[in-house]
Design brief:
four-stranded antiparallel sheet; Biotin_lipoyl; acetyl-CoA carboxylase activity; Biotin_Carboxyl_Carrier/Decarb; biotin; mainly beta; 0% helix; Acetyl-CoA carboxylase
């Protein structure tokens, strides 16, 4: 299962670590765009398998940012 960026922006904060259990609607990443903080929420339940971004990275809408197993 993949969590996608919901918009273009910079990764301001990553709220999970590999191995963390994530529930549906948990905020996993916070993006910053035009001085606004935009939460990215999980659409799934699962364990964080991979974090594909780092804080400060720029992402585009629909980029895969986290993988769950």
């Amino acid at each position: 299962m993949e969590i996608l960026s919901n918009m273009s922006g910079s990764v301001w904060k990553i709220n999970v670590n590999i191995g963390d259990q994530v529930n549906k609607n948990d905020t996993v990443v916070i993006l910053e765009s035009m001085k606004m903080e935009i939460p990215v929420e999980s659409s799934f339940e699962g364990e964080v398998e991979a974090i594909l971004v780092n804080e400060g990275d720029f992402v585009n809408e629909d980029d895969v940012i986290i993988k769950l197993k």
